[in-house]
Amino acid sequence: MKKQNLVVVGGGSTYTIGMIMSLVAEKEQFPLKSITFYDTNAERQEKIAKATDIILREKYPELERFSYTTDKEEALTGADFVFVQIRTGGLAMREKDEQIPLRHGAVGQETCGPGGMAYGLRSIGDMIELVNDIREYAPEAWILNYTNPAAIVAEALRREFPEDKKLLNICDMPAAIMVSYAGILGKDVFDLVPEYFGLNHFGWFTSILDKDGNDHTETIKRAITEDGFMPEDAEIANDPSWIKTFKQVEKMLNDFPEYLPNTYLQYYLYPSDMVEKEDAENTRARQVINGREKRVHALADQIIADDTTENAELEVDIHGRYMIRVAASMAYNNGDIFIVMVENNGTIPNLPDDAMVEVPAMMTSRGPKPFAVGHIDTFYKGLIEGQLAYEKLVVDAYFENSYEKALQALTLNRTVVDAPRARKILDDMIDANKDFWPELHRSKQLVTNA
Q1: Residue ranges of the Glycosyl hydrolase family 4 C-terminal domain (predicted)?
Q2: Assuming Cys at both sites, which of 35, 54, 235, 262 could form a disulfide with 317, CB separation 3.0 to 4.6 Å?
Q3: Would you please indicate which residues are annotated as catalytic (active-site) residues?
Q4: What is the structure's pLDDT at 235?
Q5: What pLDDT score was predicted for residue 244?
Q6: Mean pLDDT of the region 90-114
Q7: 213 φ, ψ (degrees, to nearest 5)
Q8: Beta strand pairing status for 367-370 and 81-84?
């Protein structure tokens, strides 16, 4: 089995140590020759990298090389796989993404609604530059992108790199939900086979099977509606915000019992409820800054100070394992099935062919081979088409520098659905993102009416 050279872009991320532990746990399925961290923030990366060096020394001694750098040529040259996890603007801008909509009575969330648009318009340019850099220094590398908001980023990359067949957009949220399904059933998550359709953070499980073909969907539904639904993944299981999110699945399933929903649908189906529950001065970003970020940095400091992992609580998370299993299936042509984002091209016949849909696919050395979903019913089609139009309009706004397209996007989004409020949010976000967004120009008609 050929050993791979892996580059992790965004090496200073708070998720990186979890990814490293996942690579250790999955080293038989995805053996590595080298790991390289690349980040534009040298100080942030150095602490995580120094802790990682100790972890790998103790838990992955067969790894031939570990390095970290802020030089993209040094990082990317010779890569077989590149895992991409960047956050343009950092958590400080995420907090603004969440606060601004809430102050106007709209959902404040990093990937949904106005927050997703703001984050997307910041991410697109950096992602395009990064893919161009990877193709310059590692033209044959697989790029697995899990930068949020994944739906908007995937649509932008589809337009910019239409012929790139080794660029895959992926999200771990369906897998995190399936971990909880596995807990209900007493099974390992990788023994479950999902049937699923939708867009990223906007989809439904139609069935949950096991590898013997047994259907466990109704068992899961009954368990959720009768006993409630709690996260099982170690990263989120003790997080009050995630516990509330998973609890909301019970309400969604009672209202719309046909399919098992992605947790993010709560923001689109119950936007007023979501606004009422949030505190603009203590949004999810602030909780991460005061919670996970501090915990991870303290963990890294402890490992560095001790020069060992003996006293450190290190955990493998589904975020890393899912990404690694996908990569392994492509590297070794395993044909395993995972939920990923692909260009529709008839997978869901009554949606546009150029939609970036999220569906199960067999992962091969030639890329994802999606399974046909078939026609979807009016309710789901209507919801998806509205969300898809919003995503496309956001990307239009980026490429066309169009204020009007951004305003249309926000007005259309189910978390806003009010043109005057959309305009106020957009104007505040333009001010907040002046160092990150492309300049958005108003049409003559909009200037006249402003």
Answers
A1: 196-416
A2: 235
A3: 172, 264
A4: 65
A5: 79
A6: 97
A7: 90, 5
A8: unpaired
- Which amino acid type is present at position 160? E
Query: Which tens digit of pLDDT belongs to each residue from 28-82?
Result: 999 999 999 999 999 999 999 999 999 999 999 999 999 999 999 999 999 999 9
CA distances from 372 to 128, 151, 202, 291, 347 (A): 30, 20, 18, 41, 5
Burial 172-197 (b: 16+ CB within 10 A, else e): bbbbbbbbbbbbbbebebbebbbbbb
According to DSSP, the β-strands at 81-84 and 142-145 are parallel
Structure token digits, residue 308? 């060992």
Contact between 280 and 106 (Cβ < 8 Å) = no
